[in-house]
Amino acid sequence: xxxxxxxxxxxxxxxxxxxxxxxxxxxxxxxxxxxxxxxxxxxxxxxxxxxxxxxxxxxxxxxxxxxxxxxxxxxxxxxxxxxxxxxxxxxxxxxxxxxxxxxxxxxxxxxxxxxxxxxxxxxxxxxxxxxxxxxxxxxxxxxxxxxxxxxxxxxxxxxxxxxxxxxxxxxxxxxxxxxxxxxxxxxxxxxxxxxxx
Length: 197
Prior knowledge:
Elements: H1 4-7, H2 11-19, H3 23-45, H4 48-64, H5 74-92, H6 99-107, H7 111-130, H8 134-144, H9 150-157, H10 161-179, H11 181-189, H12 191-194
């Protein structure tokens, strides 16, 4: 069981220890990120088993390649892995059949059209976000843009975790009808692209 000292370890420290075959450090990474990664995958796929499998595969790979993979930011690495695996699952056709083709069609026109489409999507996203209550919008962006956990958001804003969960649920319910299913899902797949500064 991790003690007080181990709870203060940074991701960088945990990665160093994992490279030295430290199972406690790996367990701490697993416990810290599992639910967040699962929710990221599930919010797109709406398939519990597929989301669990993807997160398990990412964690297994992290351990199996612990001595060879160079990771500068664990948070960025894990979320990039989730996006890649989710996109791969959609592309395979096994999950949400036809969704990949819809997302691809949305962005495969010529370069000029792509730029216009991106501007339109960003405008639509900005409009949808602007219609959320300020606190709801702030919580949603902390969750999706900065990938903060419910607990981290609650601590940062001085509110309860249940309030955070409730506000994220409200945001998702309001954004989906405004953006439409395909753009809404694409936003989650490419969140770092659409939710940029």
